[in-house]
Amino acid sequence: MVWLIVVSLILAGIVFLLLEILVVPGATVVGLLGVALVVAGNVISFNNYGTETGVVTILLTLLVSMVSIGIALRSKTWKKAMHSSTLSGRVNVIDADKVAKGDEGISITRLNPMGKALIKEEYYEVSSKDNLIPENTPIEVVKVEGNKIIVKSKEE
Description:
Layout (H helix, E strand, L loop, with lengths): L1 H21 L6 H21 L1 H24 L1 H6 L22 E4 L6 E6 L2 E7 L9 E8 L2 E6 L3
Parallel strand pairs: 3-5
Antiparallel strand pairs: 1-2, 1-4, 2-3, 4-5
Helix pairs in contact: 1-2, 1-3, 2-3
């Protein structure tokens, strides 16, 4: 009966590790739980069946893990479950002749202190000199540092 617990713990741990690798990004509770279950199954095997059976259990765990990962990576099922969104944003690419100190525009979103603004018919990510500028407020460029645009409200 103990062997059933050992096998269940190890298989559940492998499933959690597969979820960690293929579905849940980063080191999360899912991965830690998977490692804990695999280790617990192997420790129980060593304690109840001895060293020889414990070593065989570890080797079988490694074999099953590698085969499972291989099958999962080839399977189209995991592609459906994986997070596949892409970022569509972009960094400000500012030419010296496009945006300069003194240019005027309008805040598209609330600047608290960062947000979007329309300057010379182009949308930019800007940072306000003041903490909060409501949307649709006329703004003026105070400084351009590399790809960072600092603005202030013209209503002051």
